[in-house]
Amino acid sequence: MTSSTQDRRRGAALAVLCAMALMIVLDSTIVAVAVPAIQTDLGFSSAGVAWVVNGYLVGFAGLLLLAGRLGDLVGARLVFLVGLVVFTAASLLCGLASTAPLLVAGRFVQGIGGALASAVIFSLIVRLYPEPAAQARAIGVYSFTQAGGAAAGFVAGGLLTEAAGWPWIFLVNVPIGAAVLVAALRVVPREAGLGLGAGLDVPGAVLITAGLSLGVYAIVDGMVWSGAVAVLLIAGFLIRQRYARRPLIPLAVLRRPWLLATSAALVLIFATGMGFQFVNALFLQRVLGLDAIGTGLAFLPTPIVIGAMSLFVAPRVTGRYGARPVLLAGLGVLAAGLLLFSRVPVEARYAIDVLPPLVIMGLGIGVVIPAIIMLAMTGAEPRETGLVSGLANTAQQAGAALGLAVLAVVAARVTDSRVAAGVAEVAALRDGYGRAYLTAAAFVLGALLIGVFLLRRPAAASGSGSGEAGRGLPADGAGPGDLDRPLVAGAATAGAATAGAAAGRDVRCDPAAAAEAVAFEPPLCRQ
Known about the structure:
By secondary structure, the chain is an all-alpha fold.
C-alpha cells in the first residue's frame, strides 16, 4: 500500500471517528438548549429535569472504564461499532418518549452506547497515527470536531426546538448514526484484541461498573447512601483486582502518579466546561431573557473560537513550547474568562458584557483540551491504550457530573438566599450564577495547581510486555524542565511511552527513538 493510499484510508477512518464524536457532543449541547421545553412538555419538576442530563451521565460514566478495557480485549473497532448502534437506537427511543421516566431511561441507554464508542476513540486515533506530528494534527482535528459540534448543537438545538419540537433533537441522531455505521464498517481498520482470556474478570466488571454509576448518581443527586455504597463497590473492585488471576485492570496501571494526576486535572477541567455550559444556558434565558434560538446564537462564539484554536493554534504552540506550558497558559486564560463572567451585571449588554468573556474562554479551552488529552495518553503502551482512553473518558464524565451538580447547587442556594433577603428575582438569579462562575474558576485553579506541581516529569513507560509500571524514560539529562521543551518536528504526541525508551535507547540522539518519544521528551541533538 502506497503512502498516499494509507494516508487517505487513515483520513477516512479519522473522519468516521470524529463523526461519532460529533454525534455525542451534538447530543449534549442540543439537550442543554432544549431543557426548558422538555421540562414543560413532559412535566418534569425543577429538580427532576436535571435527570435529562444526569441519566445520560450515569450510564456514560459507569461504563467507560469497562468499555475501554473491552477495546483492548476484543478490539476497539468492535466496541466502537456496538456503541454506535446502541447510541443510535437509544436516540430513537428518546425521540419517541412520551413520559418523563421513559425519556430518562432512553438517556441512560444512550449513555451506555456513547460510553462504548467514546471509550475507544482516543485509542483508535493513537493507533491510526503513531507518528508524533501526525498524531498532534489528528487530535487537533478531533478537538475541532468537538468544538464544531458544540457550535452546531447550540444553534441546531434552538432551531429544532422552536421549529419541530424537542423530540427532533434526539431523532436527528438516527440518520447520522446510520450513515456513520455504514462508513465505519468500510474504513475503520480491523484489529485483533488480546482476547477475553487476557482479562475478562466478570465480578470485577460488575463491581466497577456499579460503583462508578452509583458514584455519579451520588454526585448528581446528593445521595449520601449511594456515595457510601459506591465507595464500597470500588474498594471491592480494587481488592478483587489484587487477587484475581486475570484482572480486568492491572493495579500497576492505577498506581501511576502521572495517570492519577492527569485524571484529576481532567475531572476539574470538564467539571468547569459542563457546569458552565448548563449554568450559562440558564443565565442567558432567565437573566438576559433570550429564547432557545437566541441562547444558541449567544453561545456560538465560544465553540467557534475553540475550534479555530484547537485546529490551527494548539498543534503549533504545543509543538513549539511543549504540552505542559500550553496547558498552564490555557488554564490561566480560562480562569480569566470565568472571573469576567462572574461580574456580568443584571442589565448586561451582550456585545460588551457577555461576548468578551465567551471569546476569552474559547481561547483558553481551545488549547487546554488538546494539551490535557495528550498528557493523559502519554505513557500508555499500545496494549493499554484502550484502558487509558477509558480512564481519561471516565475522568471527563465524572468531572461533567461533578460540575453540573456542584454549580447547579451553588447557583440555587445563593439565589434562594438572595430572594429570601428581599432581592428581586432576576438580580438574585444573577448573583447565583455569578457565584457558580466563581466556583468554576476555583476548579480551574485546582487544575492549574496540578499542572504546576504534579505534572513536572514525563510519564513512566510500563515496560514492554511486563505488565508492571515503573520503568521510566532515560534518566540522563532528564528533569522537571523537560516537560517544557518543544517536540521534534514541531509536534506534540499523545502517544505511548516508546519501546525505544523502554529498551534503553537514547531518545535524545537516536532519531528513530526520538520519533517515538513521549510528548515531553524531545530529542536534544540537532541534525
